Amino acid sequence: MLEKLSSGIRKGLERIARLALVDKNAVESLIRDIQRSLLAADVNVKLVYELSDRIRKKAFEKLPPGISRKEYLIKLVYEELTEILGKEPAKIELKPQKILLVGLFGSGKTTSAIKLAKFYQKRGLKPCVICADTFRPAAFEQLEQLAKRVGMPFYGDKNEKDAAAVVKAGLEAMKKYDVIIVDSAGRDALDDELIKEIKNIDEVMKPDDTILVIPADIGQEAQRQAEEFNKILGITSVLVTKLDATGRAGGALTACNVTKAKIKFITVGEKPDDLEMYDPKRFVSRLIGFGDLQSLLEKAKEATDEKTAEKLATGRFDMDDFISQISSVQKVGSFSQILDMLGMSGAKLPAGALNVQEQKMKKWTHIVKSMTKEERADPDIITTSRIKRIAKGSGTSEADVRELLKSYKQTKKMTKKLSPKRLEKLAKRGGFGALLKKFGAG
Ligand SMILES: Nc1nc2c(ncn2[C@@H]2O[C@H](COP(=O)(O)OP(=O)(O)O)[C@@H](O)[C@H]2O)c(=O)[nH]1
Ligand SMILES: [Mg+2]
């Protein structure tokens, strides 16, 4: 869902997560990534620039204790996106109620009626659907068939042309159900005829919730539609459909927010179960692509130790730094997860290669634990007899110990060979992990 929007924002955040040092340029490039993605998703330009300004302004505020600049930025972007997407979710009450669905032609009212009915049924209520679309000849059959397919109680009257009369009779006939969902007719635009029709239904029905159904593919045009319906007919919530089928959903979702009526539900497909409650926070977490934002923040915290990166930039690190970086990588999870987090899909590596690396890292951690303090500070003093002792103590082979020493030395040598400028660049871009992969553990 929302592939493009998601991948753009994610790319920007991943770049930040990977950085050791976040500077002004990094923030600007993050903002550019976000702008590009939002604009491509048809989010209103003004909204995008306001959001950019807020991020820019807050990016270098004083850090709360225990939080790195990176984590702070990721959180900031998350919060600002949540802000434009609606902040708090609408309240969904699981109690008997009458729901009226309104909207233009093809917006997804009829299919949503069934989806909603299923939603409430799954939560222990007894819903039914009523067809109040007397305008389109095939409307009756459409809802009747959809209802039959999922075993949902249905009411309609093929011979009655007055929609309000159908609703009146329907309410009477479906008394024993507790969630009554009325599907109304649409038009190409909100014209006088439609207004009159819905007002009449409203009068006999007195709905608890009048839900405006808006298709996501109209993008930021959703704002005008929401405002118009709200002004003339009064809506209490919004349901945005077809999120799966368009790249413009960002525009529709952010645009609806200007009206007081909140987005309550979204639909993400044509099947009766493709309806979800809309929660901006969850939505943003999903956009960012890590499912659980908290874990991203934790990963950002542990994946790159900024002090170690600084040591790296000056070429001064000992075995402890070397291994602390490895174990921090381990702490965060498997190596393949890290690669995934950095946006380097494991698929690029031959199968099995990742496991070997994880195994190796485990071994190396054991080896270093068997070294003395002096050996860790200055691995050059490690002679053959020490290697024997270390291998025995760590339950590894001498070859394993030699391999670690070689890797450490190579990494150190490489950092010395690099010009300070290039080193800084590397450290900034990938932190220690990138170097490790390039020269050490790779
Ligand atoms: N892909 C996709 N199609 C949808 C979704 N919701 C509705 N549709 C399709 O949009 C078309 C119009 O839907 P319908 O409920 O008949 O709209 P109505 O005229 O407002 O009653 C149908 O072909 C639906 O299957 C959705 O969430 N995703
Ligand atoms: Mg319909």
Write the layout of secondary structure elements.
Elements: H1 3-18, H2 24-40, H3 45-58, H4 69-85, E1 97-102, H5 109-122, E2 127-132, H6 139-150, E3 154-155, H7 163-173, E4 179-184, H8 192-205, E5 209-215, H9 222-233, E6 237-241, H10 249-256, E7 262-267, E8 275-277, H11 280-288, H12 293-303, H13 306-314, H14 319-332, H15 335-341, H16 353-369, H17 373-377, H18 384-394, H19 398-417, H20 420-439
Parallel strand pairs: 1-4, 1-5, 2-3, 2-4, 5-6, 6-7
Antiparallel strand pairs: 7-8
Helix pairs in contact: 1-2, 2-3, 3-4, 4-11, 4-12, 5-6, 7-8, 9-10, 12-14, 13-20, 14-16, 16-18, 18-19, 19-20
This protein binds guanosine-5'-diphosphate (GDP) and magnesium ion.
Magnesium ion is lined by residues 109-110, 133, 139, 183.
